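sry for the spam today, last one i promise. struct tokens for design, 341 residues
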């Protein structure tokens, strides 16, 4: 059974054909980084306009790469939230129009549910139950997953998402957008113990908080008299210092994510964890989570980097279960910017 997944929740236009919820036949992603990077973050209006331009070519390429047409598709799974409302509207309107004109059943998928199902697109696949840590630009949440549609949120960020902290710190250091991959790279040549940035462990809670860390980096930069207004401080700052800031900032984020995951494992008595979302592509986080898994005999499932960041294959993977459960969407489906799982 082939599902066509569509995701336009943020700044990537993506379409994918997935067989039986697990086998990725095609996964096309049109990235908008070039458009947004000069602003240091996503400009929602520009994102929606670009989605409008790209949705047809991206869907067309997904079908062509898979060697199929709409006639071969059992269902279209579209992400209807959470996300940027203008961006979501493009994917939802497109999916509804195709479903109406071709008589294809529509299913609606929550973006976070998509991230939970991305580890099923590769071997080995996690058996239920498992803990899912979703760490992206918009979300940092821990879930207990007992099966399809059986999700319980254990904790979430109280302020910035981890990816958002990466992006904001990168912006204040004048390093560019998106910040995650840039800081990840610089950190590889820095000393993670050089600067003692705070770690918000929030005792007794599985919630997260990263806004204090961002402020601590800003204060450090001001104290060391680096000009935060300068467009690119990498020209005036010794590279070694930038590398140390990146490594120390990253160490704080990774320490918190790993520690909180350990707490959740203990609390829920589940020794199986999946990671997804853009920050799960981070090299240090991947390394530390794998080490933690080996030390504590916990099974760790991390999708390859392209399946961690936003993609439509994960929407099709979750959509497959909606289809099998007969959970179809009506053609008056409306996207929502805020949509808890
Ligand atoms: O899941 P995603 O593609 O989109 C959202 O749903 O937000 O995640 C994008 C986020 C951005 O904040 C980006 O800076 C971060 O993921 N990111 C990373 C890395 N690659 C992407 N963060 C840390 N290390 C990386 N290697
Ligand atoms: Zn995402």
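last one done:
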């Amino acid at each position: 059974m082939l599902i066509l997944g569509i995701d336009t929740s943020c700044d990537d236009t993506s379409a994918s054909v997935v067989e039986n919820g697990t086998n990725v036949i095609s996964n096309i992603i049109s990235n908008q980084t070039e458009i947004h990077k000069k602003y240091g973050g996503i400009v929602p209006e520009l994102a929606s306009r670009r989605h409008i331009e790209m949705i047809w070519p991206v869907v067309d390429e997904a079908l062509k790469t898979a060697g199929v047409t709409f006639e071969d598709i059992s269902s279209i799974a579209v992400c209807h939230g959470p996300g940027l409302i203008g961006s979501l509207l493009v994917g939802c309107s497109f999916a509804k129009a195709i479903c109406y004109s071709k008589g294809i059943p529509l299913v609606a998928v929550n973006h976070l549910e998509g991230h939970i199902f991305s580890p099923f697109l590769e071997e080995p696949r996690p058996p239920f139950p498992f803990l899912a840590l979703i760490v992206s630009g918009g979300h940092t949440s821990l879930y207990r997953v007992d099966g399809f549609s059986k999700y319980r949120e254990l904790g979430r960020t109280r302020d910035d998402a981890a990816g958002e902290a990466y992006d904001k710190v990168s912006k204040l250091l004048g390093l560019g957008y998106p910040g995650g991959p840039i800081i990840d790279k610089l950190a590889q040549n820095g000393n993670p113990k050089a600067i003692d940035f705070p770690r918000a462990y929030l005792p007794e809670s599985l919630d997260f908080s990263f806004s204090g860390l961002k402020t601590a980096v800003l204060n450090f930069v001001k104290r060391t008299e680096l000009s935060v207004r300068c467009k690119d401080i990498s020209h005036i700052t010794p590279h070694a210092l930038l590398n140390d800031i990146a490594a120390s900032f990253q160490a704080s984020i990774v320490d918190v994510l790993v520690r909180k995951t350990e707490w959740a494992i203990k609390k829920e008595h589940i020794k199986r964890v999946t990671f997804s979302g853009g920050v799960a592509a981070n090299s240090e986080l991947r390394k530390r989570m794998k080490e933690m898994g080996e030390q504590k005999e916990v099974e760790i499932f991390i999708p390859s980097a392209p399946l961690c960041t936003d993609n439509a294959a994960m929407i099709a993977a979750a959509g497959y279960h909606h289809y099998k459960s007969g959970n179809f969407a009506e053609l008056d489906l409306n996207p929502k910017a805020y949509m808890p799982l």
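Residues 126-302 form a domain with the Nucleotidyltransferase; domain 5 fold (CATH 3.30.420.40). ok im logging off now
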